[in-house]
Write a structure and sequence with these properties.
The chain has 13 helices and 20 strands. The chain is α/β, with parallel strands linked by helices and 425 residues long. β8, α8 and β9 form a beta-alpha-beta unit. Bound molecules: ligand LLP.
């Protein structure tokens, strides 16, 4: 992507603005689909639920993993049929279960004995018998940030293995559901193929145990969580290595495998474009105050996530021939020549909290008021986790396709923010 396009988008759409690259999402999906050939791929909508992204993934062949009825409606608006959707989540409301059943949902991942009872009763009353996978809590340590670990035995997710086995054994008590699968998702941002092999083995042991008392589960869903490198020298995980670590185990057992990746498909394909409002120095720290904030991208504040920040070279900056004959933007090339003009910056937003930062101690060349910065790997859990804190309208979203681009979500307005309050005055 050229800097000229980023300047054009900033000028026409304004900042802050999320920009996604359709070609990258497509390439990520194709690579994943090749590595997991024969498996069901259910995109975790929570990572980025923009309708245009959902539609793109649907056209590429993805199903959807949803955790609310709102996400189910989004997936269907984007062109999915209900049977291509898995409804997961630790706390589904009755009205959500009813709507999902009425729509003809493909699978429900059930997370407690009580939920199984409620779902079975509702479905039976409707004369339905939906496919259910029990989400087990496999007690595998995913070695990730504590907020992103979900499969340690005592976390709120899923059902411990023994009680889950007991539910399958007592399946005759739940005539409104077809318990046909077992599911686990042990966490997010994982980098060890061995962790997936371990999880798969727990799932397959579960299936084997069920077979021993005559219950034949046809599907195992091993969740998502595939890590991506947020820094050029950061930890990496090739999806092929995950597939190689666990698929041979499953093939030997003759079960169908499902996965639910979110971040892997969209993180790297997105960036958050923001403009520098002010530069200042307080004590020993240089600050770049930008127009994006923690309400736009909360990952740095919430998880201490370190996203790479790049300066977008100015359009009008003179270009020079580099040694290999190609043209380079002067602003970028001077990065290496004029070390004295670089500084370590705290990139912070306008929100009234010290926790409002987008990056700590990043090296940026010649930063000035008005410069554009592009925060990398912001396509997953970026816009999706954004809020209106400080009455800040949520950002616009743009999709790049080939050499062109289009708005896929307009910026919120003050009027849309207060719409639900004005009538209550
Ligand atoms: N399946 C289940 C049941 C999940 O809970 C999640 C994510 C996924 C799949 C997709 O995980 P992924 O492939 O995207 O890692 N906000 C955090 C991530 C929270 C993930 C929550 N569950 C972040 O910004 O890092």
């Amino acid at each position: 992507m050229t800097n000229a396009i980023l300047h054009e988008i900033a000028a026409q759409v304004g900042t802050p603005c999320y920009i996604y690259d359709q070609d990258k999402i497509t390439a990520n999906y194709r690579r994943l689909a090749a590595a997991f050939a024969g498996c069901g791929i259910y995109y975790a909508v929570k990572a980025n639920s923009n309708l245009s992204i959902l539609r793109l993934l649907r056209e590429l062949g993805a199903g959807f993993d949803v955790v609310s009825i709102g996400e189910m409606r989004r997936a269907m608006l984007a062109g999915a049929s209900a049977d291509q959707i898995v409804f997961a989540g630790v706390g589904k409301r009755d009205d959500e279960l009813i709507e999902a059943l009425d729509a003809g949902i493909g699978w429900l991942n059930v997370e407690s004995a009580q939920e199984l009872r409620v779902l079975s009763d509702i479905a039976q009353a409707k004369g339905l018998r939906p496919n259910v996978a029990l989400r087990i809590n496999p007690a595998v340590d995913p070695h990730t940030h504590q907020y992103l670990a979900t499969g340690k035995g005592s976390s709120k997710f899923g059902i411990n293995v023994e009680p889950a086995l007991a539910l399958v054994a007592q399946r005759a008590d739940y005539p409104g559901v077809n318990i046909a699968g077992v599911h686990a998702h042990i966490g997010s941002l994982l980098f060890e193929p061995a962790t997936y092999a371990q999880t798969m083995q727990v799932l397959l042991d579960f299936v084997a145990e069920c077979r021993s008392f005559g219950a034949d589960l046809s599907h195992v869903d091993v969740g998502g969580g595939f890590g991506v490198a947020y820094q050029p020298d950061g930890a990496q995980l090739a999806v092929e290595d995950i597939a190689n670590a666990m698929l041979p185990l499953a093939r030997a057992d003759g079960v169908n495998v499902q996965i639910e990746p979110g971040r892997y498909l969209v993180a790297e394909a997105g960036q958050l474009l923001t403009r520098v409002l002010y530069i200042k120095t307080n004590g020993d720290k240089h600050y770049a105050v930008v127009d994006a904030a923690m309400n736009d991208l909360i990952r740095p504040s919430l998880y201490g996530a370190a996203h790479q920040v790049l300066k977008v070279a100015k359009n009008q900056e003179p270009r020079r021939k580099s040694q290999d004959g190609s043209e380079k933007d002067l602003a970028l090339s001077t990065k290496h020549l004029a070390l004295e003009s670089q500084d370590l910056y705290e990139v912070v937003g306008p929100i009234c909290e010290s926790g409002d930062f987008l990056a700590h101690a990043v090296t940026l060349p010649d930063l000035q008021r008005g410069d554009l910065l592009a925060i990398q790997h912001a396509g997953a859990y970026g816009f999706a986790m954004s809020s209106n804190y400080n009455t800040r309208p949520r950002a616009a979203e743009v999709m790049l396709h080939g050499q062109g681009w289009r708005i896929i979500r307009t910026r919120e307005t003050f009027e849309s923010l207060v719409a639900g309050e004005i009538g209550c005055l």
